[in-house]
Amino acid sequence: MTPPPPEMPTLPDVTVPAELLPGDGRFCCGPSKVRQEAVDALAAAAPTYLGTSHRQDGVRFVVGALRNGLAELLQLPDGYEVVLGNGGTTAFWDALAFGLIERRSQHLSFGEFSSKFATVTKAAPHLEDPEVIESPTGTHPEAHADPDVDVYALTHNETSTGVMHTPRRAEGTTAADGLVAVDATSAAGGLRFDAAETDVYYFAPQKCLGSDGGLWLAAVSPAAVERIERIAASGRWIPASLDLKTALDNSRKDQTYNTPALATVFLAVQQVEWLNHNGGLEFAAGRCDRSADILYAWAEAGELTTPFVADPAERSHVVGTIDLADVVDANQVAAVLRANGVHDTESYRKLGRNQLRVALFPAIEPDDVAQLTRSIDHVLAALTP
Predict the structure, then answer these.
(1) CATH class of 18-36+279-383
(2) How many helical (H) and strand (E) elements, i.e. helices and strands, does the chain have?
(3) Which of 106, 200, 315, 317 sits CB 3.0–4.6 Å from 131 for a disulfide?
(4) Is 80 exceeded by the pLDDT of residue 40?
(5) Taking the domains of the chain in order of start, what are their residue ranges?
(6) Rounded CA gap, 226 and 168, in Å?
(7) How far out from the chain centre does Cα 370 lie?
(8) pLDDT at 270 over 70
């Protein structure tokens, strides 16, 4: 006989008073909160947009708006281009291994996601083993110049741990010494950076861009374009769906190689245009700054709460991680919050810490972050003697 499923632990009966609850209870680190105004705009456009060809003007206009809007939002230097394709960041790591790295890459590894790209390049049979520079969880390492490296792989924000690292070229290097590829999946559109310090700044739309997943986007420099075209012409075998030259050629036509999720593209445009209309990256980063200030000041003041990242300069302003004292179970706290309509405050599953993880993306109201801290305080008081 099949054994009965294990009994689920009883959830404490804790009701958070309405006056302590955030107006919107979505704090997931991806997929993120989508603004209702964007959803309403999609519904209004649906009769002439959803279900139409992605190679016709109606959809291509929206793709073009996304590319142009991102160039404005990210303050891209002259000559940089926005390229997009299907599959998200995970697929883009494979594309980079095929179409950007010539021989060897250097990776900064300081969490679950920053380590994954290194795993990809190490397994690629046509590449040499990468150089991997690691640091303890909750910190970040720094890149260093290496003449054997032709791509430096950085991460702007480590989503699993809540560590942010401003991308910059290794000291004394230029693009001629090695391209800088930056995983900005949870950072793009929420954290400040200098695009000129990067050659491939890549991300997905389900975080700061307030949309859904399944798409990758990248801001690429002229040096990166030259590398992509040179590798494509070298005879290296590259699957068509992962071919950066194919993605580049299609993006210049405001389309993707294969059919994208039209709703995802549309919602991303709505978010980008909202951010640009209100002041661009400085507006977006300012909202994230305020939310981070609220969350970390609260955590530092509490008896049961501590910011996980010790160095304030390395604490992410888009993904906050807060350790809880051992007298209370963070999973239980998150479950009680969920029962009260506050969603997705659980820690990253593989990190294995007694902590809460909170999205602080631009679409999330700083006032709702303040209300979240009040809700957590109420739950902590109810769950501790």
Answers:
(1) alpha beta
(2) 10, 12
(3) 106
(4) yes
(5) 18-36+279-383, 47-277
(6) 20
(7) 23
(8) yes
Strands 215-220 and 200-203: antiparallel
Q: Residue 200's pLDDT is what?
A: 98
Cβ pair 359, 33 in contact under 8 A: yes
5 confidence band (pLDDT: 50, 70, 90): low
Q: Residue 267 in contact with residue 205, Cβ under 8 Å? A: yes
Say which CATH topology domain 47-277 has: Aspartate Aminotransferase; domain 2 (3.40.640)
Residue type, 37: E
The H or E element spanning position 59 is helix 57-73
Rg (CA), the chain: 22
Evaluate whether 18-36+279-383 and 47-277 have a shared fold.
no
Cα gap 166→80, rounded to integer Å: 19
Which ranges constitute the DSSP H helices of 237-360? 244-251, 262-277, 280-301, 330-339
* Reported confidence tier of residue 302, pLDDT bands at 50, 70, 90: very high
Confidence (pLDDT) at 9: 63
Partners of 158 in the β-ladder: 163
pTM for the predicted model, two decimal places: 0.96
Residue 333 has a pLDDT of: 98
**Contact in structure between 216 and 92 (CB atoms under 8 Å):** yes
pLDDT tens-digit readout, 210-241: 999 999 999 999 999 999 999 999 999 999 99
Strand 157-158 versus strand 151-155 pairing type: unpaired
Using the structure block, give the residue that is written with the tokens 């599953």: 349
Determine contact, residues 186/208, Cβ cutoff 8 Å: yes
Answer whether 380's CB lies under 8 Å from 333's CB: yes
Condensed to tens digits (0 to 9), the pLDDT of residues 320-337 reads 999 999 999 999 999 999
What does the alpha-carbon distance between residue 180 and residue 231 come to, in Å, rounded to a whole number?
17
Which of 317, 304, 327 shows the shortest CA–CA distance to 361? 317
Return contacts of 349-352, CB within 8 angstroms, 24+ apart: 350/112, 350/160, 351/112, 351/137, 351/160, 351/161
Maximum C-alpha span of the chain: 68
pLDDT of res. 1: 54
Sign of the Cα pseudo-torsion (99, 102, 108, 111, in order): positive
**What Cα–Cα distance (Å) separates residue 282 from each residue in 79, 98, 347?**
22, 35, 28
